[in-house]
Design goal:
Largest interface: A-B, 40 and 43 residues
Shape of chain B: elongated
Helix content of chain B: 55-70%
Radius of gyration of chain B: 20 Å
Number of strands of chain A: 18
Radius of gyration of chain A: 25 Å
Oligomer: heterodimer
Structural class of chain A: alpha+beta
Distance between the termini of chain A: 67 Å
Helix content of chain A: 25-40%
Chain lengths: 366, 166
């Protein structure tokens, strides 16, 4: 027996026990899901051995009680089904999907920067050198140039500015926002053009066109998107006049439905010596949280503003329009209507788990 | 009080290429396959034990690992840090091919601790890598049709975001 030949499956050589051991060392549910797409035998292997469930329980041991209930429920089906083995397989497949989804959706460990692009700024002094796109780069200078966004100058320090960003997913759970004001290292006195305070809003574009961030021109952006509908406004946070990445933690994690976040910069503190006007300059913005991934789709209904959150473990199931808790349907499609309000993480978990456990969909209407 | 003849006894192992390795019996205990062989032969092992599935390069690495870990365990307090550093270096020093060969050898010889470590190392290698990379690494033949694969990817689209490019 010599070296591993190219077409020889290493895990087949190692055998199922060792393979399970390797795969249980994967911490990220995404890795496990990708592993299940490598080939038919791997797909079967991952599902048969309940690896997603194992990972989910490893990450959230408190789910072990829940896990049991889901299984019991699924077991009810085979009783009426003649083909014991195939329905067990269906059961395992469903578990695989559900647990992979849960693991991914609820894990705080994969939180990261949720900004996918900068959409617009309320004003920009020198475009494009001082465009809001620069705030996506954590450095305050790149190669030969400084990297920051600058507002236009104002003689009135109370004039605010806003920066609008697109998030990585239409549904994100946001915990913190980081903002670093810009210190003009090329100006005498090294002035820092921070704002007096910051405030954040989250929501969605009024018209559900695809957000293209190609045009960062302020005026065009506003016209194109017809503005945004804000569903959440944070409290005001005072900003320090310091050249550091300042972290603003939201009082509760906030679910942003719609994928748009606005940073409001309230009040100016720094005058530019040259023209005696007040400016605000920001070098970097980060939005920390995690996208509530997989099978979530958001369908927003105009003009009521209510949205339907569709949980679709399988994309091939029928898409029914919003209906309140269809308890008779054994389909895996769960529709529930939520009005757009701020939700804490705990409640979100509860809604989710309740939806998975109960045969009827959970309707939360406030 | 050390010095008991048992712990000083040397076992000789022979690899595929015919290279001989003298191994302390205390180390040989970690090679469970070898230990089983010794136990079965009623402790009467004077001639070299042939290991038809193990190459010199792998055995050398395995013994290196075991010797070092024995040293760390028996010794000084700061051993944990040193051990972690050694482990990291050990993992880095191997190419993917060498890593795979080592797992097979360690599996055959049934070296529990090393296997545990190698499993984690493999998981680290495939973490956040593309499907093609992982297939290549494990030597898996893709038996899905392009349509089936497309369907699978779409169903699990979220799992494919942010993957490292090859």
């Amino acid at each position: 027996m010599s070296e591993v030949k190219n077409k020889l499956d290493l895990l087949q050589w190692l055998g199922p026990d060792m393979s399970i051991k390797v795969l249980t060392h994967l911490d990220d549910p995404c890795d496990l899901v990708r592993v299940s797409t490598l080939s038919r035998s791997w797909h079967q292997f991952v599902i048969e051995n309940g690896l997603c469930k194992h990972l989910c329980l490893k990450m959230f041991p408190e789910l072990s009680g829940v896990g049991h209930v889901i299984e019991v429920e699924n077991m009810i089906e085979p009783v009426s089904n003649m083909l014991g083995s195939s329905s067990n397989w269906e059961c395992l497949k469903r578990n695989h999907k559900v647990y992979a989804f849960l693991a991914c959706g609820l894990t705080p460990s994969i939180s990261g920067n949720c900004i996918s692009d900068a959409i617009s700024a309320s004003s920009t002094d020198n475009y494009p050198e001082e465009s809001v796109l620069n705030t996506l780069d954590p450095r305050d200078r790149t190669d030969f140039r400084a990297s920051y966004w600058s507002s236009k100058g104002e003689s009135d320090p109370s004039v605010p500015e806003t920066l609008v960003y697109k998030l990585t997913s239409k549904i994100c759970l946001i915990t913190e926002i980081h903002v670093q004001p810009f210190k003009a290292y090329f100006q005498p006195g090294l002035p820092i053009y921070s704002a007096k305070a910051v405030r954040f809003r989250m929501g969605r574009p009024k018209y559900p066109t695809e957000l293209e961030s190609a045009e960062v021109d302020d005026i065009i952006a506003n016209h194109m998107f017809g503005g945004n509908l804000w569903t959440y406004t944070s409290p005001e946070f005072p900003m320090l006049q310091e050249n550091c990445l300042q972290k603003f933690k939201l009082p509760e994690p906030v679910l942003c439905i719609g994928g748009v976040l606005q940073v409001e910069l309230l009040g100016r503190v720094q005058k530019q010596e040259m023209d005696q006007l007040f400016y605000i300059c920001i070098s970097h913005v980060q939005v920390v949280g995690w996208p509530l991934l997989p099978a979530y789709d958001v369908k927003i209904h105009h003009p009521s503003g209510k949205c339907t959150l569709k949980y679709c473990p399988q994309t091939d199931c029928c898409m029914s329009p919003t209906r309140r808790g269809d308890s008779s349907s054994p389909s895996r499609l769960r529709n529930f209507t939520t009005s757009i309000m701020q939700r804490g993480v705990r409640r979100w978990e509860q809604i989710l788990i309740a939806a998975l456990l109960g045969p009827g969909a959970v309707v939360v209407d406030e | 009080m050390s010095g008991i003849s048992d712990t000083e006894r040397m076992i000789t192992l022979k690899t595929v290429e015919g290279t001989l390795f003298d191994v302390k019996s205390s180390i040989a205990k970690d090679l469970k396959t070898v230990q089983a062989f010794i136990d079965d032969s009623d402790d009467d092992v004077t001639s070299p034990i042939p290991l038809p599935n193990v190459f010199t390069r792998e055995l050398s690495r395995i013994l290196d690992y075991l010797n070092n870990h024995h040293r760390f365990r028996s010794g000084i307090e700061k051993a944990d840090e040193e051990m972690a550093r050694y482990d990291a270096e050990f993992a880095k020093s191997m190419s993917h091919e060498e890593l795979k060969a080592l797992i097979l050898a360690a599996n055959y010889l049934n070296v529990k601790d090393l296997l545990e470590f190698l499993n984690q190392t493999v998981a680290d290698v495939i973490q956040n890598k593309s499907v093609e990379f992982v297939r290549n690494f494990f030597g898996i033949e893709n038996d899905y049709t392009p349509e089936e694969e497309e369907k699978l990817r779409n169903e699990n689209e979220w799992a494919f975001n942010g993957v490292e490019q090859d």
